[in-house]
Amino acid sequence: MEAYDTVVEALNGLKERGYTTNFNIAFDKLICSEKKHVLNPDEFEITEVYRFEGDTNPGDEDVVYAVESKNGDIKGVFSGAFGLYADSVSTDMLRKLAMHK
Q: Are 64 and 77 in contact (CB under 8 A)?
């Protein structure tokens, strides 16, 4: 696994390695509005995780996830805050993300 110092470096590095779809969490699934992709928790694997902690500002804390569909035709990324700033997600999605802390 690569080592990155910033969220931007991680996102750019993953893109260079083929993780080109930008996902967002929509409570119980990953979505990419631009490409019209939707992945439920049982349809993707998290292949890499990069956690960034803000030294002086908790608002700078972020996690970057590299994901791949189980059939291998979609590779992408999503990022999100953790702790107080985390988005609301379903129990299934929370289980999926927690496996990769």
A: yes
What token pair was written down for 72?
Answer: 């291998």
Q: How far apart are CA 84 and CA 28, in angstroms?
A: 19
Taking the domains of the chain in order of start, what are their residue ranges? 7-98
Nearest 5°: CA angle at 54, between 68 and 10? Answer: 30
Tokens at 66, concatenated: 């590299």
**β-strands 21-22, 75-80 pairing:** parallel
pLDDT digits (tens, 9 = 90+) for 26-67: 888 999 988 899 999 999 999 999 988 866 555 557 889 999
- pTM reported for the whole predicted model: 0.81
